[in-house]
Amino acid sequence: FLETNEWDKFFNHTNNVIIASNQVTFRDRRFHKFLLRYKPKYLEIYDAENRPDHPPGIGQDRIDYIVLDTILPKIGTKVYIKGINRGHDGLTAIGQSDVINRVQAVNVKNNTAAGTTSDQTLKESILWAKRQFNVPIIASGGIGTKKDIEFALNLGADSVLIGTLFAAAEESNLSAEAKEMLLYKNSNDIAFHKQNNSNLLVKENITDGDDFNYSKNLMHTVRDGNNGILYAGKAIDHVSAIKPVKDIVAELLGI
User: What are the angstrom distances between the C-alpha of 88 and each of 116, 184, 240, 241?
Assistant: First the structure.
């Protein structure tokens, strides 16, 4: 958790950012106080599925409904569930509960996404999600050009989520060394790691004693470029320079 002064500094810039949480954070009463204080417009819940290596999926705890029915509507926060993919057996909690009726959208990932465990293509992911969920679909994974965006939208996605391109932006909080990894590496350098079934870009050797998500190794790279990892998708092939966000957006829109 960020300290209160860090949250204050964060929200002095904007409250239009998407606040992300996993199941554990989502159910933490300290986090609920932050939500009520800062009233973010958007909340992303990731790792929300019911998998053996994760806490119970969203919809399997009473506190889920308190947050979704009371706290978030009270402050006008829109919420979406990130990272759903057909490769998981964990849709039971989301698909068979009525949680899906309490969120505004779902994000599906495919086999070209950073940190994915899916074996589905972008097309397969979108078409499957359109059948599975009656809410807007956010497609992600390997999207790095205007053509990629148009392809996803033409398949029925309502929006797209782009991560890797913006991770390499000038405004990104990644270290200069981490951005150079994204600039000078390509999708052939991305390795699949069995510990968390994810696509990772490895700087040097991964240090031992880390958690399931390689959090310590990730922070090493994010902060100072030391040995560690980045989560990177195949859109890394479209990182041609460290550019400001406005230039990246202009290129994606073809303007």
Answer: 10, 32, 33, 35
Query: Which of 175-184, 186-195, 238-247 is the least confident region?
Result: 186-195
Q: Which of 119, 101, 108 is nearest to 84 (CA)?
A: 108
Higher pLDDT, 188 or 98: 188
Do 92 and 84 touch, CB atoms closer than 8 A?
no
Q: What pLDDT does residue 93 have?
A: 52
Give residues with Cβ within 8 angstroms of 9, minimum separation 6.
Answer: none
Residue 129 and residue 27: Cα distance in Å, rounded?
26
CA distance 255 to 252: 8
Neighbours of 3 (CB within 10 A): 8
Answer yes or no: are the C-beta atoms of 135 and 105 closer than 8 Å.
yes
Cα 157 from Cα 93, distance rounded (Å): 23
pTM: 0.86
Q: Quote the pLDDT of residue 159.
A: 95
142 CB neighbour count, 10 Å cutoff: 26
Mean pLDDT of the chain: 84
